[in-house]
Amino acid sequence: MSLNISAVLEQLEGVRKSTNGYMACCPAHDDRNPSLSIREGDNDGILVHCFAGCLEEEICRAINISKADLMPPSPPRRKNHQLIAKTSNSSLPRTVMYSHSPKK
Predict the structure, then answer these.
(1) Could you write out the DSSP letters of every residue in 65-79?
(2) DSSP helix/strand/coil, 7
(3) Any domain includes 87
(4) What domain count does the chain have?
């Protein structure tokens, strides 16, 4: 499951807007001055960084989410094969041929 940035911010205290995203009190340690940076990455994932040194895993555990929740949503799987020939002659074994087409 992938969360949006609003869902993550709702679980934090002392949230304020910053130049590159948001700052908040880190839930993984006793934080009185916001040391946790939260922002959206280029790929729509959520980036968190604690300037006091807490690990991403510790931050996620403190707000009961997984690192996978910070990842961007997976695009739907798409078949990358296309049908190029199919025999119709009943005297031949039925054959289906596929060509692998590169992902776009």
Answers:
(1) --GGGGSPPPPPP--
(2) helix
(3) no
(4) 1
d(CA 18, CA 103): 38
Handedness of CA 54, 36, 12, 25 (dihedral sign): positive
Of 25, 20, 27, whose CA–CA distance to 62 is shortest? Answer: 27
**Is residue 92 situated within a structural domain?**
no
For residue 12, the Cα-to-chain-centroid distance in whole angstroms is: 19
Question: Which tokens is 24 given?
Answer: 């908040």
Q: What is the DSSP letter of 53?
A: -
Task: Name every residue whose Cβ is closer than 8 Å to that of residue 80 and which is 6 or more positions away in sequence.
Answer: 100, 101, 102, 103
Q: Provide the whole-model pTM.
A: 0.69
Q: Answer whether residue 47 is part of any domain.
A: yes
79-93 pLDDT per residue, tens: 665 555 555 565 655
Residue with tokens 């692998």: 100
Domain that holds residue 64: 5-70
